[in-house]
Design brief:
Length: about 230
């Protein structure tokens, strides 16, 4: 990791406070196992596979929280250049617009600026992962039947952050020398959601079509595709 990137990340400049696992819990042990695989340089396709004897719901829950923290951090590093003026629409290029919808204020898909969309998204995810009825932390407490449905929705929406950052703010990422780090985060995310079929293919299309180019250090996305929620 470059010195400039370390200086930015060492500020812990997250868009939202990091969610941590309670030491001594099964979730914490799974998190350590996942991190150990990554730190050991294990192939990412292999690293995302469900460890023998572990519960899939626990494995997904650990990664949802981890991806939230990582993507939260990535967006936090470029958020000063993502404003209502620079990004009046939450999009991934001219053909992809992401509209916000929830169960409260925005009951219909609504066009918003990127920073407003991001703020609502992170707030919404925090509510989900802090809800014990959805993400139980006590040993022996079962996951609800709707857990995977919620996890898929979280991951699909988090992927849109990657799309926006890659297409609209990758110059800023490049200035920090963070291409390799962001590319690795993206690869990890992509391999995980495809391993367990956690995101619809149409959500992945904006970046998957040119994934190979972006995987190489310093590569740039030139083409964009179309999808509106």
């Amino acid at each position: 990791m470059s010195l400039a990137l370390k200086q930015v990340f060492n500020k812990d400049r997250t868009f939202r406070p990091k969610r941590k696992f309670e030491p001594g819990t099964q979730r914490f042990e799974l998190h350590k196992k996942a991190q150990a695989s990554l730190n050991a340089g294990l192939d990412l396709k292999q690293a995302v596979q469900l460890p023998h004897g572990e519960d899939l719901n626990d494995w997904v829950a650990v990664h949802v929280v981890d991806f939230f923290n990582r993507i939260n951090l990535i967006y936090g590093t470029i958020s000063d250049s993502c404003t209502d003026q620079t990004c009046p629409v939450m999009s991934g290029g001219p053909k992809y617009e992401y509209r916000w919808q929830d169960e409260h204020k925005y009951k219909r898909p609504t066009a918003l600026s990127a920073p407003k969309y991001m703020s609502l998204l992170m707030d919404w995810i925090e509510v989900q992962i802090n809800n014990e009825n959805i993400f139980p932390t006590n040993v022996g407490t079962p996951f609800p039947k709707t857990f995977m449905q919620v996890a898929k929705k979280i991951l699909s929406r988090l992927f849109r952050v990657f799309v926006h950052v890659y297409i609209h703010h990758f110059d800023r990422v490049s200035q920090m020398g963070a291409e390799a780090h962001v590319n690795t985060c993206y690869k990890h995310f992509y391999y995980f959601v495809t391993e367990f079929n956690l995101t619809d293919h149409k959500e992945l299309e904006p970046l998957v079509s040119q994934r190979a180019d972006r995987m190489s250090y310093g590569a740039r996305y030139e083409n964009q595709c179309s999808y509106v929620e």
